[in-house]
Amino acid sequence: MTEDRPETIEPTVADGEPGSPSADELLARLQDAEREREEVLDNLRRVAADFDNYRKRVAREQSQLYARAGERVVAKLLPVLDDLVRALEAAEHHEEAKVLEGVSMTKDALAGVLASEGVEEIPTDGAFDPHVHEALMTQPVEGVEPGHIVQVIQRGYRLGDVVLRPARVIVADG
User: Fold this and answer.
1) Could you give the CA distance from residue 174 to residue 171 in angstroms, rounded to a whole number?
2) In terms of CB atoms within 10 Å, which of 72, 126, 132, 167 comes out highest?
3) What is the pTM assigned to this prediction?
4) What is the full DSSP assignment across 73-106?
5) Mapping DSSP to helix (H, G, I), strand (E, B) and coil, where does residue 23 land?
6) CB atoms near residue 110 (< 10 Å)
């Protein structure tokens, strides 16, 4: 039979006993630990400051990037504005043919700028697609299959896969 015995606890070495650290050694260890703690805290503060500076720099660079992107588009649109001014000046002199030609050229220039930025017109020939078209109404039309677009009220545009504005259309009803 085994008896339940309490665990034996090793006696600790008290001050002054052989092998125990002296008070000076303990104080030196404490000072070393405090010095090491201060170094670690200083490093941590430096890392936090570096990260804060990095975050601010990235935010500043991002806003500059947006500004430059806007500048590029605006610079491309300024000639279109110039064309509109010329068309309006021709209208003041009642040169209708030049006004029509100027407005047509301006429309083409604006479409070119938008295309260079990746903007595409949403096709409206064929079947209605609720992802890119907005049906304003339906109406019966002979010779047109139900669900097909019969009239475009407002053109739609996309930038890549993002629909900037859906095409507003009238759809044939069965």
Assistant:
1) 10
2) 167
3) 0.56
4) HHHHHHHHHHHHHHHHHHHHTT-HHHHHHHHHHH
5) helix
6) 17
Q: Which two tokens stand for residue 60?
A: 């500043």
Q: HSE-up of 117 (CA within 13 Å, CB side)?
A: 21
Q: In what order do the strands lie in the sheet with 133-140?
A: 133-140, 167-173, 149-154
Using a CB cutoff of 8 Å and minimum separation of 24, what contacts does 95-103 make?
A: none
Residue tagged 């339906």 (tokens): 138
Q: How many helices (H) and strands (E) does the chain have?
A: 2, 6
At residue 68, φ and ψ (nearest 5 deg) are: -65, -40
**C-alpha span between 164 and 146 (Å, rounded):** 27
Query: What's the Cα-to-Cα distance from 133 to each of 27, 162, 167, 174, rounded to whole Å?
Result: 80, 13, 5, 19
Q: Rounded to an integer, what distance in angstroms lies between the CA atom of residue 70 and that of residue 75?
A: 8
Quickly tell me which residue has 């079947």 as its tokens. 127
Structure tokens at 102: 């100027």
